[in-house]
């Protein structure tokens, strides 16, 4: 099977339909996808491979109030940090995930319970509070993969987790980012948002 990968050199990508892409981990590399309507029972998943032990895989939030999801590699383990309004929670799964092989990540929500699964191993945690919706779709941010756009540096108040801007960027390959566009919708593979930014090169892998 052929797999098209995209190597990103600047802020984003211009290719809309792709099976996977490569982020070089530079200070300006990231990919941007449409909003995720996490609702009360949303799920999101992706696959990655890298040889770097640290790096931001995914971030999305409610536009700067409370709610956020941050997925990152920390010394080869996968860490999900999130807030649904009742305080930040952390789930950590896996080890030595920077082995250059593909690994599958899934985040699933069931009202107050959030689960992180990596290669079939799951940890779950319940959130505190009375309301568990993930922000409001109209004001939620897009889904960012691998890093954050540079313009957030001057607009930290738009981030529910401002420290995300300082996380090391992910250097490696991403494929099969899957989530639903709306509550109750069928999850499907996501397409990158069209931008005017340049692409360094396309490579064809087998």
Sequence-ordered SSE layout with sheet pairings:
Layout lengths: L2 E6 L11 E5 L6 E3 L9 E7 L5 E7 L6 E7 L2 E7 L4 E6 L9 E8 L2 E6 L2 E6 L16 E3 L25 E9 L8 E2 L11 E5 L1
Parallel strand pairs: 1-2
Antiparallel strand pairs: 1-15, 2-13, 3-12, 4-9, 4-13, 5-6, 5-12, 6-7, 7-8, 9-10, 10-11, 13-14
Explained architecture:
Strands 1, 2, 4, 9, 10, 11, 13, 14 and 15 form a nine-stranded mixed β-sheet that branches. The N terminus and C terminus are likely disordered. The radius of gyration is 16 Å and the shape is globular. The chain contains no helices and 15 strands. With 206 residues, it is an all-beta fold. Pfam families: Laminin_G_2 (PF02210).
Question: Quick gist of this model?
Answer:
The protein has strands at residues 3-8, 20-24, 31-33, 43-49, 55-61, 68-74, 77-83, 88-93, 103-110, 113-118, 121-126, 143-145, 171-179, 188-189, 201-205.
List keywords for this structure.
206 residues, mainly beta, Jelly Rolls, 9-stranded mixed sheet, 0% helix, globular, disordered N terminus, disordered C terminus, signal, Laminin G domain-containing protein, Laminin_G, ConA-like_dom_sf
Unreliable segments of 5+ consecutive residues: 1-18, 194-206
> What do the pLDDT scores average to?
83
Largest sheet features: 9 strands, mixed
Termini separation: 6 Å
> What is the 3D form?
globular
Given the helix and strand composition, which structural class is it?
A: mainly beta
Tell me roughly what share of residues is in helical segments: under 10%
Q: How many DSSP-defined strands?
A: 15
Number of domain units: 1
**What is the fold named in CATH at topology level?**
Jelly Rolls
- Number of helical regions: 0
Instruction: Indicate the CATH architecture.
Output: Sandwich
The ordered string of helix (H) and strand (E) elements is EEEEEEEEEEEEEEE
Which CATH C-level class is it? Mainly Beta
Strand content: 35-45%
Radius of gyration over C-alpha positions, nearest whole angstrom: 16 Å
Organism: Cryptotermes secundus
GO cellular component, one term: membrane
Signal peptide: 1-20
Keywords: Signal
């Amino acid at each position: 099977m052929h797999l098209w990968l995209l190597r990103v050199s600047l802020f984003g990508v211009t290719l809309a339909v792709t099976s996977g892409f490569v982020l070089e981990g530079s200070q300006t590399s990231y990919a941007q996808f449409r909003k995720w309507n996490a609702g009360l029972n949303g799920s999101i998943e992706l696959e990655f491979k890298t040889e770097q032990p640290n790096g931001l895989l995914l971030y999305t939030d409610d536009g700067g109030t409370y709610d956020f999801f941050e997925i990152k590699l920390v010394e080869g383990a996968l860490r999900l940090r999130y807030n649904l309004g009742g305080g930040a929670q952390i789930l950590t799964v896996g080890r030595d995930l920077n082995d250059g092989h593909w690994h599958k990540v899934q985040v699933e929500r069931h009202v107050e319970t959030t689960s992180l699964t990596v290669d079939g191993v799951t940890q779950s945690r319940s959130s505190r509070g009375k309301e568990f919706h993930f922000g409001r779709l109209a004001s939620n941010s897009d889904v960012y993969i691998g890093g954050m756009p540079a313009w957030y540096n001057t607009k930290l108040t738009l981030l529910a987790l401002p420290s995300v801007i300082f996380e090391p960027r992910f250097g490696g390959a991403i494929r099969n980012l899957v989530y639903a566009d709306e509550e109750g919708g069928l999850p499907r593979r996501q397409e990158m948002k069209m931008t005017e930014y340049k692409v360094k090169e396309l490579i064809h892998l087998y």
